[in-house]
Amino acid sequence: MHRADVSVVTQMSSTDVADLKPYAEFARIAYCLPLIVGSWSCGSSCEALSDFKVSLTGGNDNSIQYYYVGYWPTKNTVVVAHEGTDPTSILAVLTDANGLVEHLDSTLFPGVDRSVKVHSGFADEHAKTASAILTEVKSLISQYNATSVTLVGHSLGGALAEIECVFMALNLPSHIAVKGVTFGTPRVGNPAWAALFDSLVSDFKRVNNQKDIVPIVPGPELGYSHVHGEVHIVSDDQVVLCDDDSTDDQCTVQSVPDIFEGNVLDHLGPYQGIYIGYCLP
Predict the structure, then answer these.
(1) pTM score, two decimals?
(2) Which pLDDT belongs to residue 2?
(3) Distance separating alpha carbons of residues 42 and 29, to the nearest angstrom
(4) Range name among 74-83, 192-201, 243-252 with the lowest pLDDT average
(5) How far apart are CA 164 and CA 169, in angstroms?
(6) Is the dihedral of CA 233, 239, 245, 248 positive or negative?
(7) 3 state DSSP class of 89
(8) How far apart, in Å, do the first and last CA atoms of the chain sit?
(9) pLDDT tens readout for residues 74-131
(10) Mind giving me the DSSP string for 195-251?
(11) Cα separation of 230 and 204, whole Å?
């Protein structure tokens, strides 16, 4: 499975940029305690999404990242959001030359070719909650007649959301659209993974902020490749849409050539004015 060699950069309109803001709010909320999320009492972010109906929360911020599932009437979609992790912690894992890739679980990802591999840590974390989340998503689709499912996350949570996009595409009826919006997401798998993802999930944005170093790891030299959909916040008033691992000067790979020329604080934001990585109840 091969991908086209594409390097296209487009200036995003202010309207398209503003449309990403609710997804940044969803991603920030994922850092809150399940008790806070369950009561939808997470301050300004929950107030900005006041019509959202949360139905399932979980995780313990240790062996299982926080997550939540619910229905968003504004878009008639079921939303699944995953918590991320401290940027210094994820960098230590993702810059390890011994970082392993593994085949996808054929039970969770039926019919996927054995050439497709993803980071073992991401795959293992996703598997812990996959069945429970899928059951809840199916229930909400039936209850509300939702037409889509939207996967959201930041950092490690973005990697989980990326994997979950493919998981949903393979396990939900074909008439249910799959959308993903992630923030500060590392590379998740090998080129075969990226090609599979691109073939199954067309509605996807992975937003990178300025000099954030997390999106450039793990590197291609370790066998990793990004999926499509890069949105790069170059500055507060310049946001561009790139594709694949574009080498254009305005895109992440070129503007952050290595971890020594980046800024780990940019991993936290701002994304459309929102900082992600901690809960603001």
Answers:
(1) 0.94
(2) 42
(3) 7
(4) 243-252
(5) 8
(6) negative
(7) helix
(8) 45
(9) 999 999 999 998 776 766 666 554 567 899 999 999 999 999 999 999 999 999 999 9
(10) HHHHHH--EEEEEEETT-SGGG-S-GGGT-B--S-EEEEEETTEEEE--TT--STTS
(11) 9
Q: Residue 255 in 3-state DSSP?
A: helix
Q: What residue type is assigned to position 211 of the chain?
A: K
- Chain centroid to CA 222: how far? 21
Which of 159, 164, 78, 94 shows the shortest CA–CA distance to 129? 164
- CA pair distance 142, 53, nearest whole angstrom: 15
**Closest to 203 in 3D by CA, of 138, 241, 154, 150:** 150
Which stretches of the chain are DSSP H helices?
14-18, 21-29, 34-38, 44-48, 87-94, 120-144, 156-171, 191-200, 252-255
Q: Are 119 and 99 in contact (CB under 8 A)?
A: yes
Q: Which pair of tokens denotes residue 173?
A: 């009826």
Confirm if 251 and 241 have CB atoms less than 8 A apart. Answer: no
Burial of 240 by CB count in 10 Å (0-12 exposed, 13-18 middle, 19+ buried)? middle
Report pLDDT for 3. Answer: 46
Decide: residue 201, CB within 10 A, 0-12 exposed, 13-18 middle, 19+ buried: buried
- Cis before 22 (ω within 30): no
When pLDDT is averaged across residues 176-195 and rounded to a whole number, the result is 97
Distance of alpha carbon 137 from alpha carbon 49, whole angstroms: 19
What's the rounded mean pLDDT across residues 9-19?
Answer: 93
Give the rounded percent of residues in the chain with a pLDDT score beyond 70: 92
Please report, for residues 35, 137, 167, 210, the alpha-carbon distance to residue 52 in angstroms, rounded to integers and kept in the order given.
16, 14, 23, 30
